[in-house]
């Protein structure tokens, strides 16, 4: 299974990028972090729409789409691992997670998603969200393989 994380903003050189690299090295799956950035001076709804267009272009064709959204479904680590296991077992070739910018995801992207997923009730910076997602992908892998990393 190939995993893409399509995110607004460039994390290069940030602590979040370092965390992502740490988990990329540990995961057995191919994970591609695709960063997009609007280069026009936009704000509000116009910015969210422009980000949505860039994110759509970053998502692989026919990928199962997971929208990271504060109003999405909260899953435990075990529940997230079960979802990944189902997608893997169902033969999903490409799985794409999308992370919007500071103003969130465009409603059209949320409607197109196979799953809207929340990292919890707290608000997280979108740069940190990708690092948290990477850790949860690794944790899900360890849960699925019976590795002792996950001790809950």
Please provide a brief summary of the model:
This protein is α/β, with parallel strands linked by helices and 152 residues long. 43% of the residues lie in helices and 23% in strands.
The computed structural class is alpha/beta
What overall form do the CA principal axes indicate? globular
Secondary-structure element order, N to C: EHEHEHEHEH
- Report the C-alpha radius of gyration, rounded: 15 Å
- The total domain count is 1
CATH architecture: 3-Layer(aba) Sandwich
Largest sheet: 5 strands, parallel
- State the CATH topology: Alpha/beta knot
Uncertain parts: none
How helix-rich are the residues, as a percent range? Answer: 40-55%
Strand residue content: 15-25%
Strand arrangement across the biggest beta sheet:
2-1-4-3-5
Give the averaged pLDDT, no decimals: 94
Distance between the first and last residues' Cα: 26 Å
CATH class: Alpha Beta
Number of helices: 5
| CATH level 4 superfamily | SPOUT methyltransferase, trefoil knot domain
């Amino acid at each position: 299974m190939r995993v893409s994380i399509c995110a607004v903003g460039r994390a290069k050189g940030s602590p979040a990028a370092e965390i992502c690299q740490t988990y990329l090295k540990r995961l057995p799956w191919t994970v591609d972090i695709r960063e997009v950035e609007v280069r026009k001076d936009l704000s509000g709804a116009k910015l969210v729409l422009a980000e949505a267009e860039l994110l759509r272009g970053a998502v692989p064709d026919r990928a199962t789409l997971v929208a990271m959204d504060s109003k999405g479904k909260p899953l435990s680590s075990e529940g997230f691992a079960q979802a990944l296991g189902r997608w893997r077992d169902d033969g999903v070739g490409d799985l794409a997670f999308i992370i919007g910018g500071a103003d969130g995801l465009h409603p059209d992207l949320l409607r197109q998603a196979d799953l809207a997923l929340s990292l919890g009730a707290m608000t997280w910076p979108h740069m940190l969200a990708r690092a948290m997602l990477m850790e949860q992908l690794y944790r899900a892998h360890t849960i699925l393989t019976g590795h002792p990393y996950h001790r809950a």
